[in-house]
Amino acid sequence: SYIQKGLAPPLMGCQPLPREPF
């Protein structure tokens, strides 16, 4: 998702995570 894209590395930038699947 967008939030994880800013915190996590580009590899898991916009994946449907259980926390915020965007």
Reconstruct the topology from this structure:
Blueprint: H1 2-7
Short characterization:
With 22 residues, this protein is mainly α. It has one helix spanning 2-7.
Description:
The chain has one helix spanning 2-7. It is mainly α and 22 residues long. The relative contact order is 0.39.
Q: Radius of gyration over alpha carbons?
A: 7 Å
Q: Largest sheet, if any?
A: none
Order of helices and strands: H
- Structural class label: mainly alpha
What coarse outline follows from CA principal-axis ratios?
Answer: globular
Q: Count of DSSP E strands?
A: 0
Q: Helix fraction?
A: 25-40%
Termini separation comes to 5 Å
Unreliable spans are none
The average pLDDT is 55
Amount of beta strand: under 5%
Number of helices: 1
Which properties best describe this structure?
22 residues; mainly alpha; 1 helix; globular
